[in-house]
């Protein structure tokens, strides 16, 4: 099935970092459930190594989905947005978070309906969210500075609130996994002026 093929190749660096960020008891339970033998009383490091070495790619993809769901699955769209903003501020304290309430839904117009790409005009600014291409764009002055630091502007934040929830959730989680667990070889999101 195409869905299996799509998820059959998880980012190895993000998977390793997610596994490293999982407690040893949780790793033991996961390793056993995913069919690894002799997992009890192994060290955290040995468990991570075994899961990366011995599980087939399709199984690693399911494992990755499960680890991601455990971290982000309970968060609302606003909760995910808050995580993205907090992560950007941790990375670069000079980055300022947008005031999300400063723009309202009535100022937004849908220009292109995805998937895979959503385009809006929000208070006169062209805004693009393209999860498949890992691309976010807005031409406002805040994003020109902030986008390079992984920070969203209020227009992009509004775009995520206006998109269908499932699509917004998928895009925000993909962005968070890349930012929080990606390694040097993980393909980054392009965040730049339109
Ligand atoms: Zn903007």
Write the layout of secondary structure elements.
Layout: H1 2-6, H2 12-20, H3 24-33, H4 44-54, H5 57-72, H6 77-91, E1 108-112, E2 117-122, E3 125-130, E4 135-138, H7 141-146, H8 154-162, H9 165-181, E5 190-192
Parallel strand pairs: 4-5
Antiparallel strand pairs: 1-2, 2-3, 3-4
What does this entry look like structurally?
Helix 2 (12-20) packs antiparallel against helix 4. Strand 3 and strand 4 form a beta hairpin. Helices cover 51% and strands 12% of the residues. It has helices spanning 2-6, 12-20, 24-33, 44-54, 57-72, 77-91, 141-146, 154-162, 165-181; strands at 108-112, 117-122, 125-130, 135-138, 190-192. By secondary structure, the protein is of the alpha+beta class. Residues 1-6 have low confidence and may be disordered. It has two domains: 2-72; 77-192, no CATH class. The protein is elongated, with a radius of gyration of 19 Å. Strands 1-2-3-4-5 form a five-stranded mixed β-sheet, with helices on one face. The site of zinc ion has 8 residues, from helix 7 and helix 8.
Count of distinct strands? 5
Please give the count of helices. Answer: 9
Briefly note the structural class of the backbone.
alpha+beta
Major sheet summary line: 5 strands, mixed
Overall mean confidence score, pLDDT: 91
Q: Biggest sheet, strands in spatial order?
A: 1-2-3-4-5
Rounded radius of gyration (Å): 19 Å
Beta fraction of the residues?
5-15%
SSE pattern: HHHHHHEEEEHHHE
Classify the helix fraction into a percent range: 40-55%
User: What spatial form do the alpha-carbon principal axes imply?
Assistant: elongated
Low-confidence stretches: 1-6
Distance N to C terminus: 36 Å
Q: Which ligands accompany this protein?
A: zinc ion
